[in-house]
Fold each of these.
Amino acid sequence: CGQDPRWRGKVHELASRGLTLDALLLFYKGLGRDYMEHFEGATSTTEDVVRGAVVPLSHHEQCAHSEIMMGSKCARPDTMATHNWSNLYRDLVAAMVAFALDETDFEMLAGMLDRDPEQVERWVRAAGVGSHSFWVCAHCVNQHAGICGGNPHRSKDSVTGREHEVCGCGLAKAWNDTQPVCRDDGRSIPCEMNKFDDMMETLSASDPRFSQLIAVDVELRLFSRAWCVAEIAAGYRMGVHQRLKTWSLQALEEHEERLRQLRIEDMEASRKEDRDEILDKISDHAAFDAQLQELLWKDLVPSWQHMDAAQQMESVGHIVRWHGIARRPGSLRRVVCQQRPGEQSLGADADDAISEASRARTISL
């Protein structure tokens, strides 16, 4: 398919739909206020937001929501965000902010998004990273050319408990087998959901700084989703710079045994044809599983215990910075903290910072 000019044209179209962090935070602030009035940061999933805000807000234009967010300006993505739709949308946004700000995890950022998103905006502005652009399928795929018109699994909104509404835009849908298809492998040319690997390859080949954010949900369900794991493996194979962002290091440690049992054949996808296509592209499933384990435990999963002194002090610096932000005048939050068990002493000042912030929990004033 890669040699078909129609396929390449669609890949390049997708690759021009990046959205900036500034645009993302502006959209986030409107949730629960200007649209999707029932939105709750601690409850609403990415699927809820796609069905309840992304699709309705792009109904008239029948285009990818990122094009509306960016005012129809083309933005080449700096980073591809790999995420699962069952994750909280708040946590997806927090992971993207954490990536741009070079934070190790996003637990406290998620709390700030709940209580003071303007503070997050100010920090992003001060760091000069608001123009960093992401490609995230929830916004950058044209949902009106795909899932908007149906709800075959009768999924329900996490807050209201009502079935997600479907869209009556009437735009023709393009699935894995929609004509025209490539001669060599039968993949649909107009479909937007079957070109993520090609898009990543195009972006990484033209920009050596192109990166991949792996936004992991608290329960680590991302690693059970076939599309997500396939994207991670593709980025690894292409040599893309990959960075894992989690709720906390403790969340990874708690699920370590389950992660070590991952098998591509056990993973799920919303549509059977998607799962079948992913499995068909992997010739040796056992070798793929072994590669995934190597990627997880040698390249992606951070380990505080094995950091050298300089890395530990850098992490402490981040903790101290969070501590300062939490106490800054005008912030609507404070932190209550406890020492992380088993941490090595780094000196009185550093230990004070850790005990103040490393295991922070956000509470309302």
Note: Residues 84 and 271 are 14 Å apart (CA to CA).
Amino acid sequence: MILQRLRSEKKIYPLFCILQSLLTFFIGLALVRQTWFWAYLAVLLLIHFFFGYAYTILRVIPVFVLVAASVGLVSLAYAEPLQALQAGYRVLLIGVSAIPSLSMSAMDLVRNFNQIKVPRWLTLGFLIALRFTRIMASEVRRIRNAIRLRGASAAWYRPSVAYRAFILPLVVRIMNISDLLAVSLETRGFRMDGETTQYKSLRLRGRDFAFALSILVFCGAALLLAYGGLSWLPQF
């Protein structure tokens, strides 16, 4: 029951998700040397949690924590502890900033781009790029399962077997997917020019504006604290 509630995330306007990820990421890069950068990540996580991204946080953050810890430990071999910590912070920043973007639907993003008259070739490129990672992961998983069922081993130290059992099937499958994509675009009447219609339109809601405003206030406060200090506070 709890997991189902977490899954039912209320989506934010896709364009706001993309802009939020870019804004918080680049501002975070500028602030990563601050001693309180951990608070920047924590508050950003709280904002995402407040706007209903708990399920995505539970899925994404543990992975990035492990990767950040690994990067930090590796960095200790050639850098100071503070620099290693900052390297781990940068990895965490990627995951925390991308949470809204990772949870949005690819089709919603395409609809959003069509509404604001983004060129069709760019929209198609975004859609393929967003779907490609999942499709590739699924195909790799299927090929590995097929290799296990046949009792073969395509380990890296057996390149000849890996080439025949893994690389060749993957290349053939990618070529088949590209052919299916071309046929799908053709049968659906996709074209680069001309007027198009949409079955479903996305509308801005008060929740979207509240999310954007909270991110802007948060980023502004972080920049003010980093570069303006506390001198703007009244002195007593």
Note: The chain has a mean pLDDT of 79.
Amino acid sequence: MLASKGLALYHKLKEENAQKTVAQNLSEYADVKANLFVDQKKQGNKILENGPSDTVGIVCKDREGNIIVALSTGGIPMKMPGRVGDTPQWGSGGYAEDGCGAAATGYGEDLIKVLMTKSMVDRVNVEGGSSARRTQDQALEQVRVLESKVDGKGGVICLDKNGNPGIAFNTPRMAFSFCIEGDERGVVVANLFVDQKKQGNKILENGPSDTVGIVCKDREGNIIVALSTGGIPMKMPGRVGDTPQWGSGGYAEDGCGAAATGYGEDLIKVLMTKSMVDRVNVEGGSSARRTQDQALEQVRVLESKVDGKGGVICLDKNGNPGIAFNTPRMAFSFCIEGDERGVVVGIEPEDLKKI
């Protein structure tokens, strides 16, 4: 609403603009663009390269399960007069249905083409978002769709019907925070992810990290398995992962041992290390090639049965190693007595050829 003085000024400016030709208006618009980007090199291309900024999106769920989505927009640079972006278009900038809500940011034209938040909510409600891991994976997948279908840049935040958050983006950075009632961490903020490019997306995209697993065999054939865990992001209070559950994070039997890393819920479902040890002991691991093939097969089972991400290391009764993973990378090393290579190390998938 405008006061009478402000309203009079508005009408005056409107009349002045109406008297200008289209060419004059476009010329002035071009001047504005030129001034804004007069020294791109000095600005570090921060507007054109890093894209839209200052958008604020909020998704909230109350104790009765009511969902609220709220949005503001920072617009995009060099937009044409009259442009309507994603924020006012329901299903593009924001959407809520059946207890699930999502908000998006990025280039509005791209978000509109894929109906970013409508697609995100449908993905969660149709495919099911029953856990923090599941909803997070669906957010990551929605951003991949944005990029693959329209070469789009942006991000999305989401809450499923159980209040589990999903957050993903493919821009250099996106500030975010979330808070879940009863979560002892309180408000989780984006300080850790202030520069995704620098961090290498290591938590949101590549999953859990910093787990350490060790499998050792002494000269008498005794086998030892030891584990630590880095946990997973956004875990619920009281969660028990795979590490303390024998047969999931680690297992040893009949001279064979295995340790695993990845999303604990997935490893538990397939009893990852128990299955690995059984596979070696039953099918026989009489050579390095044989044991390695069985490790690769166990990871394929993890992926095919529960769409799981993770890795496993193993030693058979003869001391042959088996190492496999389906994550972007997994640091590993091994040393076999008498092997002239000494300590063999690796981290990338192609490093598995060293085994």
Note: The radius of gyration is 27 Å.
